[in-house]
Amino acid sequence: MLQEGAHGKWTVSSSDESTEENSDSEKPSTSSLLDAARGRTSGPQYPCSEARKAAHKRKASPLKLSDKKISTKIPPAEKQRTSQEGLGWCLSSSDEEPEDQEKHAHKETLKEEKCDAPKEHPLNLCKDDELSENRKAEEYDETSSEAQDTWDLLNGGNPFRFFLTKVRGIEQSYNSGALHIKDILSPLFGTLISSAQFNYCIDVGWLVRQYPQEFRKKPLLIVHGEKRESKAELLAQARPYENISFCQAKLDIAFGTHHTKMMLLLYEEGLRVVIHTSNLIAEDWHQKTQGIWLSPLYPRLPQGTTGSAGESETNFKSDLISYLVAYNSPTLKEWIDLIQEHDLSETRVYLLGSTPGRYQGSDKEKWGHLRLRKLLKEHASSVPAKESWPVVGQFSSIGSMGADGSKWLCSEFQESLVAAGSSVTTLLKCDVPIHLVYPTVNNVRQSLEGYPAGGSLPYSIQTAQKQLWLHSYFHKWSAEISGRSHAIPHIKTYMRPSPDFQKIAWFLVTSANLSKAAWGALEKNGTQLMIRSYELGVLFMPSAF
Description:
Elements: E1 2-5, E2 8-11, H1 30-37, E3 40-41, H2 50-60, H3 76-80, H4 98-115, E4 123-124, H5 128-135, H6 144-157, E5 162-164, H7 181-184, E6 192-198, H8 204-210, E7 220-224, H9 228-237, E8 244-248, E9 262-267, E10 271-276, E11 288-289, E12 291-294, H10 316-325, H11 333-340, E13 350-354, E14 357-360, H12 368-379, E15 391-394, H13 409-417, E16 434-437, H14 441-445, H15 461-466, E17 474-475, E18 488-489, E19 492-497, E20 504-510, H16 516-519, E21 521-523, E22 528-531, E23 535-540
Parallel strand pairs: 6-7, 7-8, 11-18, 15-16, 16-17
Antiparallel strand pairs: 1-2, 3-4, 5-12, 6-9, 9-10, 10-12, 13-23, 14-22, 15-19, 19-20, 20-23, 21-22
Helix pairs in contact: 10-11, 12-13
Keywords: Cytoplasm, DNA damage, DNA repair, Exonuclease, Hydrolase, Nuclease, Nucleus, Phosphoprotein, Repeat
Binding site for substrate: 261, 492
Family: Belongs to the tyrosyl-DNA phosphodiesterase family.
């Protein structure tokens, strides 16, 4: 659906089965396992969202245009596009509130069946050409100069340790200083002993191939939120690999997801933490804009060290341990102990997580947007009262915000975003402009991936029609400085720049989209914060640098 707003045209995806708050009934069924066993498939061979499945289906059997009058002139974005058939599926996390989903689940299933004009042609996965097409997104051959570039990055070339992912099909200069997953897992970064991958959408076979040959049999723990058939699919993918074990994140509140994206990498030389925005699937590392925070290499503490040894000024070590403890999983005890044994004192960022639950008292400030509010009050410099510094949010999925801004966005959420120092009262929050960046139809159409990129931008049309007031906050996606205007954003960032965009009060990169499921919503007259999903991000503040 196309909407005209104050900031131009933007799109509402009708792939409305948003997975951030999906019920298990919307996950892939066992029939897909049977299909796979018969050697054919109508979608990706790993659990993912309805939006990505629809995108994959359309890509597998596109509409054939026979009208000869149609111009064959290739639009500029098309020329840059590298061949990547068989890519555009899996994930994202649009966040409908449960009541919205329950109302539309049945109706939309019928609509999806009627609307999909192209008939599904079963793909034979045994065909060599099909396999080669599916792996084009994986091809990543590092030149020696790129390896040197990566080495320089590790040695202080980026004091903030914030990186974008490499993008295929853009000018090479724009990939200087960017990272691919193979860079992160390369021996340059350390001699791997074992690793843990926390994520939402995972293609196990692809993930294994991203590790260097010499590390592929090292112990790998996958932390996920899949249940029932989806869990069975994930475990089936891992059967050929004896070194892979699993930890299922508890999701006791309906429609929550395990949306966190983190790597814990244990080396002979120490430990590294990577917090990022990409799913563990080929297309998320191919032609999308994604963000990564890469920790320093944390050395092991001398034996016998106890207590708060190895803590940073940002309290990162104890916050990371608290986040892992929240999973309440014996499987993660080993990693908690390993973190205890390392020196994380060089960390300059604050950890900001969400874990499912209903929190009261002092626990309310441990997670979600109230955690952000607390950090900003304690550590952010007071923004000059005479200037109204805007709040900018950028994300790949939107949840239900209510009938107007006062229900959540411009009340509790904005109050957290505008908190700063002790002078929070000097600025009325209604005076603070909010700019929300979300791709338009043209952004998607002209992207390197074309329309299938929309599969990772789910925003239910039903939800959108109930919150037309939100449109006035929207701004289109543009990233000229980084050469990524045509690389659809799956990154999520929130920040507080000065009115002239020359300064910044704080910057956050996170897995959390614009939703109550991710950030939490107050209940019981503001005495309780309810969060549905696991999320994780890092907050940059000038005072820590």
